[in-house]
Write a structure and sequence with these properties.
Layout: E1 3-6, E2 9-12, H1 24-27, E3 28-36, E4 40-47, E5 53-60, H2 65-77, E6 86-91, E7 95-101, E8 113-117, E9 120-124
Antiparallel strand pairs: 1-2, 3-4, 4-5, 5-7, 6-7, 8-9
Length: 130
């Protein structure tokens, strides 16, 4: 597990390949909060060099390391037009910043159709043909 020494204090890094040499604010202008969940807060941001909008998901290192590594591992392995893309990762002593493709339009769950079939509830996103 990679660590970096800063004086007498040892910093533990959770994500191999994360950027530790700069802050997310060095490359992105942070915008308003887009949402929050049990383990993270998502903000809109804009890449300074290109002015392209992204989302940044901020995870505090107070949660289970396995959850963070699993989420990042899944995002790194998947490449599909209907799944958000992970652009890069910044990491500090206390937080992990995931720079993600920005998807607008609200919560997917809110636009799902609910059907009851034989006593079981099914959710259908609007783009699925059934």
């Amino acid at each position: 597990m990679p660590t970096s020494r800063s004086g007498a204090c040892t910093v533990e890094y959770w994500v191999d390949g994360s950027r530790r040499d700069a802050t997310v604010e060095d490359f992105y202008n942070m915008g308003p909060e887009l949402g929050r969940g049990a383990t993270s807060v998502v903000f809109r941001c804009e890449e300074k060099q290109t002015e392209k909008p992204y989302a940044v998901k901020v995870l505090k290192k107070t949660i289970d390391k396995k959850i963070v590594r699993t989420e990042i591992g899944v995002l790194l392995r998947l490449s599909h037009p209907n799944i958000i893309r992970l652009k890069e990762i910044f990491e500090t002593e206390t937080e992990i910043f995931l720079i993600l493709e920005l998807v607008t339009g609200g919560e997917l769950f809110d636009s799902c159709k609910v059907e009851i079939d034989s006593g079981k509830m099914k959710l259908f996103p609007p783009y699925l043909h059934y």
